Amino acid sequence: MVARMDRGTPLSRRQLLARGVKLGVGLPSAAWLLAACSEDSTTAEGGATSPASPAAEVTGQAVLLNYVGWIGASEVEAFEQQFPGATIKQAPDNSSSIGGKVQIIKNNADQYDFTLGDESFVGQALLADIIQDVDFSKIPNIENVSQNFRDDYPHGIPTDYGKVGIGYRKDLVTESIVGWGDFWALAPKYSGQISMIDLDRDTMGSALKYLGFSGNSTNPDEIAKAKDALIEIKPHLLALKYYNVGAALVNGSAAMALDWDFDIALNQRKEPNIEWVLPEEGAVAYLEGWVAVKGTPNIDLVQAFMNWHLEPEQYADFVNTTSTAYVSPAATPFVKKSISENPILFPDEATLAKVEFEKFLGDATADWAKAWEEFKSA
Question: Which CATH number belongs to the domain containing residue 314 in this structure?
Fold first, then answer.
């Protein structure tokens, strides 16, 4: 029987990482990043640092809908010290689907001022008319973000991204694993020893890549085939989880996992027999950021905090705390080398070319939601 997480527990991406361990994830290619300086560097070169706005103008309370702990350890405290009249409060994001998150905000818009969301969420949120564009003239530190991420995430500030691949225990799995085909083919042999992510876009997207389709497919037949592929592998699952997916690799209860790169990179530090594979068929990846909820009365405070988040040292606090792939080269001098130089997370250009970012699916969103629920209930 597939293990499930209690829906009442706040979703915490920090829980995806073992508590207290700070291993990094830096997915951008070397061409996008500045050379890393020392582990505890205190000065940056070349990064723009702009104050959010005069302290007297930054007041009130803004609520961020966010994964628990998915922020710099000292970031909010430092902001509130800089702007004594301002408060940032975080509300836990418990949703496990894009549509569910959109509905939460639509039904409770007055409770949130801004939210974390990936490109798929932004597309749906725009259609639902629940978010608004920010004024980038009030967020000058956006200049620190690589242009490719700014182009792909134009309605708010990009914050981080990561890819989905295969982790496995090389001391438990005797076969060579190079792609999704191996993952599916080996499932019967390692039945009951496989963990997968409990998120529709990441797991169904991976199934689509396994079948040779786009991870953003809108073709009903392809979506149905991906669902069938997941139903085929489901009897062999140990767990379907949306946090600590790779933990079972550490204790040996799982031999293989469909998991995020940063989670595998972290768990490798605990168990050196864990290997990471970016499948030869390709992989899906998310790009996410912060967007403002439409009609927020605290837009000035929201934009001030966005600007603060993108200041190089503050952004590095976020990266060093969460161990995420990052989007701002200006922060690299402040980012730990265990993050900025991690070989799993700095693949070459040929490998990066196999990564497909998850996009908004339009009308096909309903087909995905239906297929995902049918898989979950199968």
Answer: 3.40.190.10
